[in-house]
Amino acid sequence: MGHFCGRPASRRALREAARESAVLRRGSPRRAGLNARRPRRQDAGVGTRDRPTERGVRPGAPPQCEDTMTETIPFRLNGRAVRIETDGERKLLWVLRGDLGLTGTKYGCGEAQCGSCTVVVDGEAVRACRTPVKDARGKDVVTIEGLERGGKLHPLQEAFVEHGGMQCGFCTPGMLMSAYALLLRTPKPTRTQIVAALDDNLCRCANYKRILEAVASAAAAR
Fold first, then answer.
1. What are the tens digits of pLDDT across the range 1-28?
2. Which of the 8 DSSP states describes residue 97?
3. pTM of the complete model
4. Which homologous superfamily is 147-222 in?
5. Residue 51 neighbours by CB under 8 Å, 6+ apart
């Protein structure tokens, strides 16, 4: 004889308790709405935050048209002439990373807000994640890979190493390219000008002080 609720229980009471427990484990009709797994939505990817893919298409996005217009887009990349056969509306970031294998330019936010994808086009810092590759036609494009020449680091890169201007390193290419564009147009910038030039570049490690020191040091050494 067992005990039920602190007092001796009959076999019938024990059987009824066991039966009720089994029903609850399986999910009674009353609880079925809570226990049943909800069917997965077929459009679950729609509306989710953009994620980086080789072609820059987010999961759940409408299917791309297969007869997109391709065109020949010539430009200079890190000092050499290149010609790309592609849809001119593709973003420059994905052409650099996927077609040309230059992965130093990073994908951060995809909305031109963080600066991780910064490259220099005709001397101006631009956000490659929002720039159609057709906008580079006939222009001079410089990426982080183009700063080093003949196995020697650019003075900006050397200054970043000397001053500890990088921690995780994810934002470093964009920071360097924004600083590079600044020194092209203003060889001896003031601290205020350096801050303004890098103001839209985000550092996830909050290493701004050493980054500013590195850029100032490189400018002073010119």
1. 444 444 444 565 556 655 655 544 444 4
2. I
3. 0.71
4. [2Fe-2S]-binding domain (1.10.150.120)
5. 58, 59
